[in-house]
Amino acid sequence: ITILAIESSCDESACAIVRNGKEILSNVVATQIEVHEKFGGVLPEVASRLHVEQISAVIDEAVEKAGISVADVDAIAYTRGPGLIGSLHVGVQAAKTLAWAYHKPLLPIHHIKSHIFANNLITNLKFPLLALVVSGGHSEIVYMKDDNSYEILGQTQDDAIGEAYDKVARVLHLGYPGGPKIDKLAKGVESLYKLPQPKTQGEFDLSFSGLKSGVLQFVDRCKRKGETYDDATLAASFQETALNEIMDKLVKAIDTVEVNQVLLAGGVAANSRLREKMDEAFKDRKEELILPPLWVCTDNAAMVAVAGYFAYKNEAFGDFSQSAKPSLKVMDIQK
Ligand code: ATP
Ligand code: MG
Ligand code: FE
């Protein structure tokens, strides 16, 4: 089964062609980071315009690199949501156009499922599994009994972890995207500043907005009092508090399920400190720990093609009436 997939949910225009959810024939990503860096974050209007400018060339390049014709693929997968409406729209239209022109079935895909299925590119997923999804828009602990089920055991009550990283980076004038910059700055640095501990309702839920405000207040207080603080120590203190919250809930959640694998998914999975903590927490456990390489973590279309392959096997086909859905829920995919 060969799937051509398109991803445009945020600030990456991407197209990939993947065989059997595994063999990458091509994987082209055009990132807009350089443009958004100038604004200190993703401007939705700018993002959709750049997608319009880039998507055709990205698709052409993916088809050319794969060395096949669109006529040879079995289905067209695309990210239907969640994401920025204007950005999603461009990918949805491109996918529908290809499906129409080449008489191919459509596979609408949930972006977070793609982040999880991305791991199949580097290993064989063995269900049931537990996925820690940590990205720019999501922070979830997900239990998947099989390739077609999805149960959220815990999730953020407010901000996503990646959002918190990006906001804290802004306070420290590190630029966008903030995650990798904080990761680098905090490396090997002791977390000496006391910041508010997250409080949550649900047992496995997460929270990052109090911590984020805590960092802002810390900086304001120092400025008011004319005190100095160390950027790297503050970055490390934020990171330790945020990651300890995640690890604490993950370890609690895993004791309520039987799984073969535990895997990381989403952009924040690239974080080096989180990976250290995962290694440490799982070194003596029976579950297999999967830490995907960085290119698997960040937005790309190969992961959409993998999710598309499983959707194809489950006959989860879509149709031309479906449009982009910025607040798409995993189980809504067929509606
Ligand atoms: P979503 O997947 O929830 O729709 P998104 O697609 O914008 O959101 P991703 O592209 O998966 O998110 O991830 C981007 C996020 O990952 C950004 O918030 C970025 O700061 C963060 N990130 C990337 N690398 C690192 C890192 N090394 N440490 C921490 N955060 C990181
Ligand atoms: Mg992104
Ligand atoms: Fe993403």
TrEMBL record:
Protein's UniProt keywords contain Manganese: no
Keyword Transferase among UniProt keywords: yes
Principal subcellular localization: cytoplasm
Binding site for Fe cation: 111, 115, 299
Residues given in the record as substrate binding sites: 133-137, 166, 179, 183, 271
Localization terms from the record: Cytoplasm
GO CC entries: cytoplasm
PROSITE patterns: GLYCOPROTEASE
Ranges where the Gcp-like domain occurs: 23-305
One Pfam assignment: TsaD
MF (Gene Ontology): iron ion binding; tRNA N(6)-L-threonylcarbamoyladenine synthase activity
Keywords per UniProt: Acyltransferase, Cytoplasm, Iron, Metal-binding, Transferase, tRNA processing
Enzyme class (EC, first level): transferase
GO BP field: tRNA threonylcarbamoyladenosine modification
HAMAP family to which the protein is assigned, alphabetical: TsaD
Protein's name according to its UniProt entry: tRNA N6-adenosine threonylcarbamoyltransferase
Organism: Breznakia blatticola
Lineage, top ranks: Bacteria, Bacillati, Bacillota, Erysipelotrichia, Erysipelotrichales
Primary gene name: tsaD
